[in-house]
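Q: I'm writing up a methods section and want to include an example of the input and output format. Could you take the sequence below and give the corresponding predicted structure tokens, formatted cleanly so I can copy it straight into the document?
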Amino acid sequence: MEKYNSIWDMYQKKGMSRRSFIKACTAMAAMLGIAPSMLSEVVEAAEKRLPVVVWLHGHECTGCSEAFIRSGAPMASDVVLNMIALEYDDTLASASGQPFEEHLQEIIKAYDGQYILAVEGAVPALADSGYCMVGGHAFINQLKEAAAHCAAIINYGSCSAWGGIQAARPNPTQSTGVPNIIGDKPIINVPGCPPIPEVMTGVIAHYAMFGKLPPVDNEGRPKQFFGNRLHDTCYRRPFFDAGLFAEDFNDKGAKAGWCLYKLGCRGPETYSSCGNLRWWNGLSYPVQSGASCIGCTNKNFWDEDPLYERIPDVPGISSLGLGNIDTVGGIALGAMAVGIAGHAATSAIQKKKRDADEAKKSSERKDG
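A: Here is the clean output for your methods example:
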């Protein structure tokens, strides 16, 4: 496979024009939510050397890699072949065995303090347990060695970010998230089970563009993808506000698209891009397909069972003095009734005033 020093280098070697390169940078800036005024910085970043990436796999199901390769904007193939130098990934690589593990050691030494470490999967804290071995070594030891020499860490999926299903009770392997093992490196968490493909490629694309991780929230998640609750971007939100809830997955309310909160939907407490980016190039997402959100980007979501029973309170409802969820519909209908009554009263007053004005004008015409 041919190697390129930068995205611009790749365009030149393929005989593509500078105009095409600028258009690609513009599209990339739009995908990352970057203002048009920063286009010159995006172009400058795309002319720099491709970042080296080492991708490790711990306790996992490989669902995050399956999601990653299905990204549509940017395409995973463009990211891997043209935007980063993916030097180690034992799932996507054609090489294996001792030569491949030796290559990892060579990369760690050659790019000491420069490469990005992507991690997929939880970390079994019992180093000598044999629960998760890579190349004959405990995964936790491989992780510590690679993390000691990296520039920053990207945790892909809820397993590497929080521990995931491996850390669910009773957690016999004592699995945990990478931040609980590595504490002295810049870390960004991209949770989800698995994350949205475009969120995964978007984060690494941001680093490829600017040489640094994107801004994060208080849980280390990229703000541009985890800045809103799913509840705030959900197309069923109007039904929530109107107090119209499905009581069963097969009832008329569910079929009519009513809110799934009473069926266990975690949307009001889950920060994710599912409601706006959606999945498979914007085709759909669980709530649109008729399933309630299980909050897979949240910490410990596997232990927040049962997943199909309502959560007790909606964040924000109590603080507004609106009571609990069972009264939301009544409040909405009551407010609507008050509004209708107020509108009727205002209309009556306006009509009375118009009639009086017309009578006055008629009287003046007769006197004239």
